[in-house]
Amino acid sequence: MSSYYLVKREELNAVRMEVDTFNLAHTVESAQPLTFIGDYTNDTVRYPAGMDYIKVRHTGTVEHGELSASCFDRDLAKRELRRRFRLDDNMQYIYKKINTDRHLDASIKRYMGMRLTLNEPWETTVCFIISQFNNVKRIRSIVKDLMNRYGSDIVDENGNTVGKSFPKSTDLIGATKKELMECGTGFRAKYIMHAADYCTNNISLDKLNPHDYYGLKETLMEIDGVGEKVADCIILMGYGNLNAFPIDVHIKRAMEKLYFEGKKKRLKDINEIADRMWGSYKGYAQQYLFHNSRAGDLNDA
DNA sequence: ACCCAGGCGGGCG
DNA sequence: CGCCCGCATGGG
User: Fold this and answer.
1) Which class does domain A2-88 fall in?
2) Distance from CA(A8) to C1'(C8), angstroms, rounded
3) pTM for this structure?
């Protein structure tokens, strides 16, 4: 039975790491890794990583606990945890940097241990193209449909299918507009088609320099459907560059309310004040503000 | 019936 | 430039 092999697989390939200042539920609920499937009652999450399927579990307290991951490749699991959940971030230091006022202080206290995640550039690009003018629940649904239709089967060592991979750009090149519409992509179908073509034939997302904020932004915005905000999301969550400060409707409203007495401001002004307050850590500030401003929003599951 | 959702591209003044 | 509009779709 497949369940037997899954148990065995987990026993054989489980990797454990100690982790401080970590909250898995907040990290997943903040809806940045849109391919993640969370099971909060067991404090676990599972998601595809390349042609592997990872299941992560957090035990212990937020202050000090343990992360365990199981997948086919033990070394991959170890690298995955560190990289994907940014375990090398010194959260106490980062909190010191972004805790500039009572708003950030409250958000940090509320979501203590929430991490940014670092995801694959291509997956991040597709997910955030889909995110535009959309809500999180539907974004997740669309991403899931795309994976089911265009992803490859992920199989364990016994040939049992355990999930679907995230489709590569080459997997999506053959997609027709009709098919993409059936996945619920709507008017974004043409963007996905262009992105698949452009990222296969014109640019190589994996070769871009994560540290070159402006260079990244310029290149990413060559893709149809990628503007300022989506580019910043990709730079932050696909390249791990904390200089990015994506300004969506939630952040815009929150920033105007908190720092401009509720007055309407241009994106440029909001970005400037973010830079003054949080400098090269503003990506983390954004994440805490974003999640806080979405609190009580039950639109996503 | 309306409104909104992690915006973007295109067109116009 | 800055502003404004349409855009697919599903859930409040």
Assistant:
1) alpha beta
2) 45
3) 0.94
